[in-house]
Every structure is written in C-alpha cells, then in structure tokens.
Amino acid sequence: MKVVQTIHEFKALNLPRPLGFVPTMGYLHEGHILLVKQAKAANKTVAVSIFVNPTQFGPKEDLASYPRDIPRDLAMLEKAGTDVVFIPSAAEMYPEGYDTWVEVEKLQKHLEGDSRPTHFKGVTTVVNKLFNIVMPDNAYFGQKDAQQLLVIMKMVKDLNMNLQVIACPTVREPDGLAMSSRNTYLTPEQRQAAPVLRKSLMLAKEMYDKGERDADKIRAAMIALLKTEPQGQIDYVSIADTGTLNELKIIKGQALVSLAVKIGKPRLIDNIILG
Ligand code: PAF
User: Fold this and answer.
1) Which residues are designated catalytic?
2) Quick check: CB of 48 below 6 Å from ligand 1?
3) Ligand 1 mean position to 29 CA, how many Å?
C-alpha cells in the first residue's frame, strides 16, 4: 500500500483502471471499510483519502478535536486491500490565496444545511478537488450521510463529471446505532441513549408499513419517542422528498426520513428511506 501526501505525487501515479475512490476524514470504522471492500470488488485499484477538511466545519464545530489516528487508519486500510492512501495537509489542499468554491445551491439548504449553513460548500468543494486529483472511475459514499450523498450526486450530474457515485449501506453497531467517527465522543451513559435515533426511525417504518401516510403524524410520533430520552436534544426530524429534500405532508412515493439529535457533545444523524 502506497501512502502519498502531495497532489503532485498522486497525479504522477499511473494507477491501473478502473479506479475506485473512497474519500474519508479518517478515524475509520467498519462503515468506511465496507466502502473500501465494495470499491475493491468492482475496481482494479482502490484509493482512499484521509483529510479532515477544515472548510466543512463551522466556527463553533469540532475541527480541532475531531478524532485522528493515522497509524490505526493505515493498518485498517492495508488489511482491507487498499492500494493507495492520499493524506494531504490543509496547506496542500488550500494554499495561501485559495479562492474557488463549488456549491449545489438548493439541495444544500435543507436539513443539515439549516443547522450547518456553510457545511456543504466545504464538502462539495473538497470532494470536487479530490475528484480532480484522484480522477476516479467510481467514488463510494455511505448512505448514513444521505444529504451529502444527494448533494454529491447532483454536483456530479450538473457538472458532467466523468465518474459514477456509488451509495453504500449504513453499517450499524449491534444495538442499531449507525457507526460514526463522532460516536467516540459519547460517554457510556450517552452511548446507551444513542440508539434512540434508530428506534425512532424504526417507529416511522412500522407506522408506514401499517399504512400511515400522514407525514405530520409520523414526525410527531418520532419526536414523542425521542423525547423519552432525556439526554437527547432534537435538532430536526424530517420526512422529505428524496429528490428535492422538501418536507412532505403526505407520503406518496419515496420519502427520506432523517434526523439529527445532539446527545452530549456529538450531534448524531441517521436516516431511512420509506417506499
Ligand atoms: O463524509 C465525509 O467523511 C466527508 O464529508 C468527505 C466526503 C470525506 C468530505 O470531506
């Protein structure tokens, strides 16, 4: 497994194609490893980036304390069969005078965008830059960050980028908690409380499966369940159109049910698709 730190070095590699790419911010877990394994199964070469992208963190967010452990990440990536790891510095990605941004205007405004107004501008810009550096044939993203996935798919379509975006399922702990690098912030009591997100999504699915289509009723039941957990602070509970992310009153086709709940320090997100 090759580890490269500069854009120049990465671009000089003559990697066999098809090339699968998994962009990450490191502190890897089984969710990332599933992305690598899916990339491995469908491509001749797999490249992974590790870059804690400063531009997608708000001024009051956890950029400085975001968990990092490169030696552990490299061991996991090597075991999963990664061919190349790209670990650029912030100065390499955003040199002095950097001034170009990519935005998906409407889709970035809902859900996560309401609470984190500059987040997706940072994500789409860095993913665009990483795509230009790595030039992958296939890029792999997890469904846990459902809005991120939709925003990136839209960017790739709108900018006629020459690659496929592949969505991979969320990997969960045995009690249903979606794996996330930020789960490490949870204290033991908060960790016990955290599966309430998944429980409320399962309640939405149960109501939908029994024939409920009134989104307000499902939202209200989810909120009531979340409120039984005193450690949780609800940020949003959304039932939205999977194409536009506009909130739904009545579920007709597919619906993205998603939520963000602060449990102690971390703000956890999860989602499910109905229909
Ligand atoms: O999902 C992530 O880890 C990040 O948002 C990504 C896609 C690597 C961009 O920094």
Assistant:
1) 32
2) no
3) 14
